[in-house]
Each structure stands twice: as structure tokens, then as C-alpha cells.
Amino acid sequence: MSGPKFDTLAIHAGAAPDPSTGARVTPIYQTASYVFNDAEHARELFGLETFGNIYTRIMNPTQAVLEQRMASLEGGTAALAVASGHAAQFLVFHTLLESGDEFIAGRQLYGGSINQFNHSFKKFNWNVAWADSTDPASFEAAITPKTKAIFCESIANPGGVIVDLPAIAAIAKKHNIPFIVDNTMATPYLCKPMEHGADIIVHSLTKFLGGHGNSVGGVIVDCGTYDWLAAGDRYPTLTAPNASYNGMTLGETFGDFSFAIAARVMGLRDLGPAIAPMNAFLILNGIETLGLRMARHCENATAVAKWLEQHRAVAWVNYAGLESNAYYAMGQKICPKGAGSVFTFGLKGGYEAGVKLVAGVHLFSHLANIGDTRSLIIHPASTTHAQLTDEQKTAAGAGPDVVRLSIGLEDKDDIIADLAGVIDDMTGGVSARGVIGESS
Ligand SMILES: *Cc1c(COP(=O)(O)O)cnc(C)c1O
């Protein structure tokens, strides 16, 4: 017997007509707090003896539907929705790490995550060790007795690396370390990290899940696969008697969803990055069409990448959905339905050609986001990475010629025509700049 399939869950999981009004769409429960039935009910709620709403910093009914939907789409036991993808990462590590602990992260990551791990986490004395996501053995080599977690992305942003999740999961399992996967770029439509050994999944809901570029959010999914109690005293948030809950041990009381509970009742309760009910509502609406949108995102991205690949002004295209790509085979294993819609390419005209392209397109929006219905473009060397030396830029995958695209849902002919309007001109020799790469 198997349950409902993905596209059905994307519309229905966690939701039911509103019991008091019959509203079919999950309402925006725009309230800060909730009336207790009586004093005993209030006492039970505060003591975690019964589940229920207390205050919207900790939970909210619109948020709860979003959480159940995401847990269901990823196959986990429970989820926690929060204010942003970065807040989700923050709460994951806050739940796992004590001051002085270490974790290992694949260095092919979203730039904001690299900053968060390198700088802000240092203030908590949480220490990142960097490994190479293209070399699973490098994760094992970085393990020390203080290593409490391993973190990587499924499709690594923005380099287009498809990560060998099963190989890294096997190392994590061998050393009994929880494995966290950021599945933002793939979404559960393209990749199910749990099937490849993840214990905890995080997402920026801001990207493809919300899908319309209108709200920031994040989520933690507890896969229920890691046995916290068997890890001795390594994860005290989950296994030590909790002084703020009458000595309760969260890992014992909540079993295979205790990580999601701990992240909520310790992390979210005390650090506070709650998602606004309005944003939870908008993201839920986005998720209803996730399957349709991801299939079209991938179709459009493949068409654009193929067009670029054959263009004589283009030096290279790095999209794992192309058979010529080094990660194509891994993609067939990890995300067989497609490689997403974010990729990079290089113009033979280098830095100046990149600047010219960004300035010349009309349909593409020049901005720092991905996963919108709209096609987006950025030239990292002149924007996000402008302060680095050329050498540093290249090491970060943001060399002078690199252009990053997030292909949207417009008609692919129009997307290609917008790029052609600038790039075709480069090969025409009109500015002479376009042919520089061909002679060098
Ligand atoms: C955007 C992004 C994040 C951070 O999410 P926010 O919602 O912007 O905080 C983390 N990981 C990846 C892969 C992202 O693309």
C-alpha cells in the first residue's frame, strides 16, 4: 500500500477545511496568542504535557500546515518553519552544538551560509571545518572527536555541483554523526535527501518552494532517523534533563521527532526567528504548484543551457542537466527529474561582456535571488564578489567571466531571445569586445 503521490501531497498534506468557518484554503491566522481553555490547560501547554498553541513566536496554525506539508513532502517525522533559510540553519546548529564543538561543511555552499559559518557562528564558538563536496573522503579526513554534524547542499549553489549524498551519508553513519542536507536548490520534487541518508533537511523556503519571490522563510525537517539517546551525552539539548521543562528529557519524551521539538521549544522559543503567518500562507500557496513549476523550470533551464552551449560568444556552460556536464551522471542518481534551474556560464568577452549582458537584458531581472517565476541574472564579479581579488573570485566560482542565471517560468523562446538580444551582438564583432575571447 502506498500513500498519495507527490503532487497530491503538495496540495493537501497538513491541510483541511477550517473547522470553524469551512474556509477551504488554510487561513492566515494573524494572531499573536491563543486563549487557554482553563488554568489546567494552560499549565499542561507550558509544561509540554499537551500540544497546542500558546504564542505565535513558538507556533501558529498557518505555520503548522506548512510544517506538516514540508515534513510530508520530504518524508520526515516533523518539521519546524522559521523566518528564513538562515534562521533554519541557525536553529539546527543551536540544537546540536555546545560552545567549542565542531561541524564539517562542504565548501561549495550558498555564499550567505559560508559567511554565517565562518563569522557569526564563531561568536558562539561553533567551529566549521571545510571539506570538498566533490570529494566525500575529505569529510572523513576532517572528523575529530568534537565533530557533531556534517552539512552540505544537494545541488550546490551556484557551482552546479551535484553532491554524492550517499557517499557522505555513509561516512556520517560510520562515525555516528548526524547528516544535514540543505535541499533548497533541488526541492523535494527533484531530490529526496532522506532516501540518500540525510538525518536533518533544511530549506530556504524563499526560493523554489515559495517560488514567487514574495516572501522569506525557512524550514527544518526532522527525518527521525538519528538515535540521539544512543549518542551518549554528545547532544545535551536532546538528552539532558531540561531545567526549563521540569527536568523533562526531550529525546526520551518525543522520540523520533524530538529534534524538531527541541529546535522549536529551545531554539525558536529562546532565539525568536518565527515566520510571519502571512509568509507561511504565501509559501503554502507556492508549494501547491511545486511539481508543475519545477518540471517547467528544468525544461526551460535545459533549453537555455543548450542554446548557450552552442553559441560562439560563450566560453563554457556549467549546468548538470547537460549530458556534457561532469555532474550529469551524479544528477541521474541524486536528482533524476532534473538539475534545477540555477546555473552559471562564461562569456568569451570576460568581465566586460558580463557587465554588458546584465545591463542589456530586459526580461531578466538583475538581482540577488533565485527560484522566482521570473528569470534572474547576476554577474558576481561586479556585484556580490566585487571586493575580492581576481584570484579569490575564481576560487569562489565567481571569476570575471561568470554569469549566474536562475531560469524562470516565462516562455523559453522569450528567455532565449532576451539573452540573444545582447549576446548575438557580441559575436557580430560590433563592439570588438565580443571576439576578444576567440583570439585569446
Ligand atoms: C537562499 C539560500 C539560503 C538562505 O536562505 P534565506 O531564506 O535567504 O535566509 C540557504 N541556502 C541556500 C542554498 C540558499 O539558496
Describe the structure.
50% of the residues are buried. The chain has helices at residues 6-12, 39-46, 61-74, 85-96, 111-120, 137-141, 165-174, 187-190, 236-239, 250-254, 258-271, 277-288, 290-309, 328-334, 350-360, 390-395, 412-427, 436-439, and strands spanning 78-82, 102-106, 127-131, 147-153, 155-156, 161-162, 179-182, 200-204, 218-222, 314-318, 342-347, 365-366, 376-378, 402-406. α3 (61-74) packs parallel to α12 (277-288) and α4 (85-96) crosses α11 (258-271). It is globular and about 75 Å long. The longest helix has 20 residues, at 290-309. It contains 18 helices and 14 strands. It has a seven-stranded mixed beta sheet, with helices on both faces. It has a five-stranded mixed beta sheet with strand order 10-11-14-13-12. A two-stranded antiparallel sheet has the order 5-6. β2 (102-106), α5 and β3 form a beta-alpha-beta unit. The protein has 440 residues and is an alpha/beta fold. Residues 428-440 have low confidence and may be disordered. It has two domains: 6-286, Type I PLP-dependent aspartate aminotransferase-like (Major domain) (Aspartate Aminotransferase, domain 2); 292-427, Alpha-Beta Complex (Aspartate Aminotransferase, domain 1). Residues 84-86, 110, 112-113, 153, 157, 182, 184-185, 204, 206-207, 216, 218, 370 line the site of pyridoxal-5'-phosphate.
